């Protein structure tokens, strides 16, 4: 009986040794990877800015007078040349009548001087008048011409002042709140404006961009790293404060040629249609500005890029014999949840994006193609079986 028990224990121990795996032969950890590819990419900068009117006119009087009427409704759209205020014009009409009378007087004096000069010119050969008398008659005629011209100029000046008693809109646009009412005395060239008109269609959006970013962009274009966009792709889009995208696209007008000393930035100005008056002056917006395109760009998930303590960006790729290689990479810009990589990766690299915690550089891995795995996974069946099917 004892021998039988010992034999059974020995047999059991032998079977357990056969079932135990050999030490050091653990399977390689799985590493999910994607295959790096190159694709065209448009570099879009999102810049903050504010809206400013296309034109602004502060309306001021050009003559002195009492306002008798306001001829517009506040907040409405006015057209260039539309009458806004009427001043009391009685003094200016009287001045115009006086100036016209001076013209008539000057014309009568000139007519008399011309007749005298012509008469003396006929008599000079007979000796009835002296040469001096003829010269004086001609001088009087010339003085009459000058006096008539001065009188006519005075009429034109008074007529202009009379016209200025009706204050017109210099531009078309939305008119604001009037600073004066009927009965107010206004003076020529006063510093306080009567009302302000703003043209809001189209409307400007002034954007700010770092000067260093602008220089880097120009350098990239000069080196051929970025290509200049065609006109059809250079439209500027606008994001409102509530996150909605403005319905109309704008165009970039110019870049400022000076740097703000306080912020180190330059101003870019874009022009947007504003037919519905959605954009008002002073509104804070964010504009997406296409500034260049890269023909062969590499975009990778942000989770696949790590940072060393010194700030160096690194990535892990699956190299020969399915071993892990550590690469130093250069990231240019965050694009959503991806990095734009300019150096360190190339098309065809197997970039590890899954299982990064279980692997190390130089170690073996079991590659798993994420794209192929997702393509082969059938969609989840969310249909709930009926009670009859359950019973069946």
TrEMBL record:
Residue numbers spanned by region Disordered: 367-392
Membrane topology: Lipid-anchor
Multidrug resistance protein MdtA-like alpha-helical hairpin domain residues: 96-165
Ranges of Low complexity composition bias in the record: 375-392
Coiled coil regions in record: 96-154
Major place of residence: membrane
Keywords, alphabetical: Coiled coil
Pfam families: Beta-barrel_RND, BSH_RND, HH_MFP_RND, RND-MFP_C
SUPFAM superfamilies listed in its UniProt record: HlyD-like secretion proteins
Limits of the Multidrug resistance protein MdtA-like barrel-sandwich hybrid domain: 56-197
Alphabetical list of NCBIfam families matching this protein: RND_mfp (TIGR01730)
Protein family according to the UniProt entry: Belongs to the membrane fusion protein (MFP) (TC 8.A.1) family.
Alphabetized PANTHER family for the sequence: ACRA/E-RELATED COMPONENT OF DRUG EFFLUX TRANSPORTER, MULTIDRUG EFFLUX PUMP SUBUNIT ACRA-RELATED
Name used for this protein in its record: Efflux RND transporter adaptor subunit AcrA
Annotated source species: Allohahella marinimesophila
């Amino acid at each position: 009986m004892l021998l039988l028990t010992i034999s059974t224990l020995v047999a059991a121990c032998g079977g357990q040794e056969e079932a135990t795996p050999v030490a050091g032969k653990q399977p390689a950890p799985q590493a999910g990877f994607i295959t790096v590819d190159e694709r065209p990419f448009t570099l879009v900068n999102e810049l903050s800015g504010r809206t400013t009117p296309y034109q602004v006119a502060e309306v001021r009087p050009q003559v002195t007078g009492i306002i008798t009427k306001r001829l517009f409704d506040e907040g409405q759209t006015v057209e260039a040349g539309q009458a806004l205020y009427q001043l009391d014009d009685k003094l200016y009409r009287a001045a115009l009548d006086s100036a016209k009378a001076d013209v008539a007087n000057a014309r009568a004096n000139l007519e008399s001087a011309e007749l005298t000069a012509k008469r003396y010119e006929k008599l000079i050969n007979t000796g009835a008048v002296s040469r001096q008398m003829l010269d004086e008659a001609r001088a009087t005629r010339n003085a009459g011409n000058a006096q008539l011209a001065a009188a006519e100029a005075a009429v034109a000046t008074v007529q202009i002042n009379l016209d200025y008693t009706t204050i017109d809109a210099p531009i078309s646009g939305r008119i604001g709140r009037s600073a004066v009412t009927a009965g107010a005395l206004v003076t020529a060239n006063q510093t306080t404006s009567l009302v302000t008109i703003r043209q809001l269609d189209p409307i400007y959006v002034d954007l700010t961009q770092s000067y260093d970013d602008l220089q880097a962009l120009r350098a990239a274009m000069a080196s051929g790293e970025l290509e200049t966009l065609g006109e059809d792709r250079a439209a500027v889009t606008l994001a409102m404060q509530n996150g909605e995208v403005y319905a109309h696209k704008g165009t970039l007008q110019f870049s400022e040629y000076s740097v703000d000393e306080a912020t180190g930035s330059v101003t870019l100005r874009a022009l947007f249609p504003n037919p519905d008056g959605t954009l008002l002056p002073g509104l804070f917006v964010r504009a997406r500005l296409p500034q260049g395109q890269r023909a062969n760009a590499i975009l990778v998930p942000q989770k696949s890029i790590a940072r060393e303590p010194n700030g160096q960006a690194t990535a892990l790729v699956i190299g020969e014999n399915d071993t892990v290689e550590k690469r130093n990479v250069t990231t240019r810009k965050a694009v959503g949840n991806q990095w734009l990589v300019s150096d360190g990766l190339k098309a065809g690299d197997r970039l590890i994006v899954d299982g990064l915690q279980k692997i190390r550089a130089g170690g073996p891995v079991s590659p798993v193609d994420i794209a192929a795995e997702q393509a082969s996974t059938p969609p989840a069946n969310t249909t709930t079986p009926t009670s009859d099917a359950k019973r069946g």
